[in-house]
Structures are given as C-alpha cells and as structure tokens.
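Reply to dn_fold:

You asked what the input looked like. This is it:
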Amino acid sequence: MRQAAGDLDTAWRAADIAPGGLVAAIDALAGAPPDVAVSRLLPWLSDTQWLCGRLDAALALLAADPFARPPLRLVGGGDGGAGGLVLADRGAVRLTLQLRPVAATAPASAAAVFVPGRAALHILADGGASIRLHEVAVSAVEEGGGFTAAAAASCRSDAPRLLRKGEILRLDTARQSFTLENGCARACGDVLLLELAVQPPSCLPIRAYDIASGCLTHVSASRRDSSFRAMALALLRQFGRVDAAPLFAAATKAGDFAARWNAMRELVALDSATARPLLAAMAATDPHPEVRRAAAATHALFSLPSGETGREGGGGPGPCTSPAPSTPISAPRALDPSPCRA
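and this is what came back:
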C-alpha cells in the first residue's frame, strides 16, 4: 500500500517539475507581479483535466485498499465540514481545491477578510449558494507600510447574488473579498471551487471588517513567516514557557508592526516582569503610532494601585486567561479600533 502511494507521489512530482508541469510553471514566474502570475497560471485553473486525472488515480488507490493514503495534502476548514486539498504551495503561489458545504457558508454577519495579493476562483459546483463581494479602499501610503487602524477606510459590501457554476472570478484581495451565503430556502448542495492565490510579502496587514457596519475589527501581519512565528509564540505562552521569554523579546523587534505588537501582548501574558521595560521602550520609540499608543496604555496598567487592574492583587496585567491571539485567518484585535466612518 505504501509502495503504491509512494510511486504515485514520485510520478506526480516528476510531472510537476518537468517542462510544462505545474511547479515548473510556478517557478518560471518567481518574482513576477501578482497580476502577471495569475494570468499566466489561469490555464491550470480553467482546464481541470489534469486535476481530474489525479483525483481518479487517488480514488483507484482507495478502491484497492480503503486504508491507503493518497499523496494529496489535506487542509481542514474547521467549520462544519469545510476543507480541501492543497495542490501546489510554492513561494507566494498557492493552488487549492476547496469544499464548502452550504450549511457551513457564512451568515450575513460574518467578517470580510482582505489579504494583500491577487486571486482567481473557478466555481466547479455552486451548491445553490450566493456570493457577496466586499470592497475597501487602500492608499499607496498604506501599501507602503503606513497603515493605521484609525485612518482605515470602511468596507462596502454589494448585495448577494447567486453563484454560477463555471464562472471564474479575479480579485485584488488587498481591496476585494467575498463571502458565501446560503442562497436557497434549504441546503441545495456543496460549493466546490478551485482557488489560485498569489500573496507575496507585503507591508500591508491582513484586515477583517464587520460586514454589517463596515467597521475594521482586526489587524494582523500578512507575511507567512510572521504568521507562523505568532502561532509558535502563542503555543509557548499557553505552555507557560517563561524560559522562552528572549524569543518573545526578539519578536517585538520584528519589521511588521502587527507582529511586534502581537509578540508584546504574548510576552505580557507570559512574563509581565520581563515585558515591563520592553513595553516602556516600545511606548517611547516604536515607529508605528498605534503600537506606541497601545504599549503606553498597557504599560500604564503596571502603575495602577493594587486592585485597579481587575485582578486580585492588581499592580500588573497578571496571567492571561483569554484565548491566544489568533492567526491571520482570524486576526488579533486592531491596535486602535476607531469609530466606524460609514
């Protein structure tokens, strides 16, 4: 069984790196602008015969042995059965096959999430669902690293429309987002889509907006390495690894402002004594105004009289009992949420 799966994996890898293969096509676009990369890779999205061939081969393995493990990388959505397959993940390019049960599609109150980059979606099955597009303005200053929550534009949402099987959507995902909603009186089926995303490193953070009000609700670092580091720090904090405090301190010097503040929040929760002087320095010298403001407000908690922090003993933040700040898919709170400007 393992030999059969290994042979299939070897064959697919060889086909991918050969001239005309998927990985070869992606590698040839290394460094290309996201729009160009999406345009050049669209044939892999529109013509799915290559994908059908791979799924047929995987099903043949399972037909021979139901305990076989086809060489396909699974990804779970964690929301009522949503999930899919990672077909390619190379540099800034990611190609995924996604299954979204209609029962798991987002309600109208869901968040619209904007990730710097470009994307194209091929709807393989519409499931009777509706799609709702969302837009937000982004300035050149914000793209260059000058984003602040206080000055962020509000999100505007279009009316839902029925999803159409076979349609291909192209999105500037820094400015455009979408949510899927149940478009039927009862569940009609599942939504199946092929998504091509090109997300090179960006100074612009990932942003989440409340659809109903259009207000910014969350901000997080958009770089993948920052995301992985944030998850690692959250895990270390949950384990109470005070001996890892130097790693947290180093992360508070990251180039991405959202990553710096996330690391500081985690360090405050892990070891407030170590965090206190670093907070003071961040409040005085951090290059981002909202990071400075958040650090100053947090540092002020250390000066409150005993009991005024809301915890027994007062005098400091104390152990954190709330869930760890999450990763970009569900980003940590905006540094300085401002009133909504509809």
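The first strand starts at residue 73 and ends at 76.
Hope that clears it up.
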